[in-house]
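just leaving the lab so this will be short. what follows is a protein written twice so to speak, once as letters and once as structure tokens for the fold. can you read through it and tell me how you think this chain folds. anything you notice is useful, everything is just below:
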Amino acid sequence: MDRERTRIAEDYHHDLQMLRSFLAAANASDLKRRSHGTRWTNEQLLFHMVFGYMVVRALLPLVHVLVRCPPSARSAFCRLLNAGTALSHPVNYLGSCATAAVYNHRRMAFKLQRTIAALEAWLAAETTASLQRRTDFPDRWDPFFTPAMSVEQIYAYPSRHFAFHARQLALPAQ
């Protein structure tokens, strides 16, 4: 488990370094260019990649409550979230478009750095048992969500999300 904890933290730092590299290499025109395979500009997609981390930071307290709930309550809550999938996708898209104006290319690396610091502190405080706890998850919301996820898998999620979307950027070669 400690090896997994270390790997997750290393992935977080790799993503932060990649974000800084993307931002350093991109000019204003690059950031306004449409990304590959999405409706977002590169800047909006970069923010969406940071947003994956922000979502996990916001979700973890709820996850820690859910893993202690009876299975019937967890599955009912998950069914409710999956029922809202049609709404979640446009909110995700439009939210990233709007919020990228606030956490733009000048602010997003700092936001990611702070979010990673919080996640790392929480991860370090987790017990082996808490990392192995599982809960039902809304697997229709994201291709990296599965019907049941452990707390450890949720900590690992933002790096998987980041790497997937990094391949969609239309930025100069690094």
Observations:
- The CA atoms of residues 35 and 170 lie 5 Å apart.
